[in-house]
Amino acid sequence: MKRNPVTLATGALVVLIFAAMLFAFQVRQTEVVIVTTLGRYARSLEEPGLYFRWPWPIQNVHRFDNRIRNLEKKYEQTTTADGRIIVIDVFLGWRVKEPRKFLELFGDNLAAAERNLEIQLRTAKNNTVGSHPLADFISVDPQSLRFDQIEAEMLREIRAATANFGVEIVLLGIKQIGQPESITTKVFDRMKAERERLVKQFQGEGERESIRIRSEADLQRERILAEAEGKARQILGEAEARAAAELKTFEQNPELAVFLLKLDALEQSLKERATLVLDPRTPPFDLLQNAVTAPGRSN
């Protein structure tokens, strides 16, 4: 019987593919592989590429994703060092670092590994939160918060607790933090009271400053008024002394006094241009009798 070459080639290709599946396997960039022989550890493969093995059940291949996996512990109530209850959400990033140790402890069961990690995360969280007062988590002063320190303490504790798990805890952080509703109301009331205390303090300081400024202004006003009154008394005294001296002169020469008074009155009357109709003998215009002016007109 004559066989078709295409059929022979196809059959050979199928056999080759099955042989490759039985005797070869691929390691991807994102995974590490453990090869076991008759159930016992044989070798670890971390570099990507094509590798050969004995077919199952002689050798078996266990694959583990070496990318960072996220584990988040949802809200749980935790007590602080000063007996306050807070609700905190913590997350961590982990990956398989020692696949042989991980395989011996958890097998291929990632869920079992995450359950154990969750227990250790809860323990680290409770221990760390329990060693810090509430003011390190919630405060009106940002400088008093200690989130970085608390996260570092949690990370150190969980790394120490999982050192034999064959995993690496890459990062840990606090995602959210809060308080039960009943406690939150009390905290807000306390914060409100603190703000009101600060308002009263600032108002008191403002009132004291206002009193000080008004007192200084009143003192300055009194000083200026006293200086002005003293100056006025000095000027008045000088004027009175000068007037007394001039009065003495006038008493010695009454005709001069009369002449000066008439001259002053005449000057006041003729400050502006005016037309006067009067008897030239009327004081003080009798001083003009000897002046050369137009009849009945004065400048």
Q: What share of the residues lie within helices?
A: 40-55%
Oligomeric category: single chain
Query: How many DSSP helices?
Result: 6
Overall 3D shape:
rod-shaped
Write down the overall mean pLDDT.
80
SSE succession:
HEEEEEEEHHHEHH
Rg over alpha carbons? 55 Å
How many E-type strands?
Answer: 8
Gap between N and C termini: 162 Å
Question: Any overview of this molecule?
Answer:
The structure is a single chain. This protein has 299 residues and is α+β, with helices and mostly antiparallel strands. 50% of the residues lie in helices and 21% in strands. It is built from six helices and eight strands. The strands form three sheets. The protein has a three-stranded antiparallel sheet, covered by helices on one side. Strands 6-7-8 form a three-stranded antiparallel sheet, with helices on one face. The chain has a two-stranded antiparallel sheet with strand order 1-4. A hairpin with a 5-residue loop joins strand 6 and strand 7. Helix 3 packs across helix 4. It is rod-shaped.
